[in-house]
Amino acid sequence: MKLFISLLLALAVAMPAHAAPGAHGPNGEHLDGPAAATASGSVPRVETFTELFELVGQLSGGELSVMIDRYETNEPVLGGTLEVEYKNLKARARFHADVGDYAIDDEKFLKALSVPGKHALLFTFTVGGESDLLEGTLDVPVAAAHEHGHEQDRRWWWLGALPVIAIPAALMVRARRRGTKEVQA
């Protein structure tokens, strides 16, 4: 039995950890995106500013996440309305009050942005009585576009490993039980 528990613990340690969709870390980073893309620096980003606002966005974890600050003070601008246009597509962002970012998760919009290359984006931002247009270019490297399409494949690899560990463990438990029955008899 101890061996079976040890094998299960080994499997749990070997399984990659994945955050729930939309999960955020302490610095506002999205935890549900592929770690390899973040580590290699291939996360598609857009940065732009005007006299009023500064905008930084990244495409990862199944969304385009955008942070907006006041240009002069670097103070986060919260609770506004953000719309993004790319070619003939438009998407409206949802504001995450817990982190202070604006997230676009429209599948059709994200699919168009995931193609490698440079994508000219037009952001329309409104907060209080102020509104501004910000233009920026999202640069999607080939590596990031390739990783974006295979997130689901990597997420479930451990299901294939489960029988490889569970079957030998069950056979070992069965053999041990037979061995204890023979000793008792």
From TrEMBL:
Membrane-traversing stretches: 156-173
Signal sequence annotation: 1-19
The protein's name: Secreted protein
Keywords from the UniProt entry: Membrane, Signal, Transmembrane, Transmembrane helix
